[in-house]
Please model this.
Amino acid sequence: MTHFLALHRKRHRTTVAGLSGAGFDALLRYDYPGNVRELSNLIGRGVIFADPGGFIEINHMFSALETLPEIAKTTKLHIRQRAEDRDGATGPSMIETLEIELLRTTLNETGWNVSEAARKLGLTRAKVDYRIKKFSLAPGPAGRPRQR
Model:
């Protein structure tokens, strides 16, 4: 863990303090179906998503549904079938679809107040802004988001 932490800190030029106690414990208990590469990927993801100077938490490393912020567990998300499943064309992955729907729902609930949405999602405002641009989301009529 120490080796991969140092490697990814250098690679991503970040000042992450290290693993939190819960993050360290989660890595010790994880089964690693992908072996050592999976450990490297988890720590790399943690380094990218953790705040500079902060600790890597469980939600920075694991992207499964059970680790989404609390709002995702209480919000009804309407997931559409992937485009490639329908007609062979490519479309957003299931994770991207979940992310878009969660973002849309939260932005609607906050009246498109990006700072408030970021707090509800447990993200920084910059990360929410990035995702709005990435998925080309914009408020539509009556404050509803629409995808451009």
Q: What stands out?
A: The CA atoms of residues 5 and 43 lie 6 Å apart. The mean pLDDT is 77.
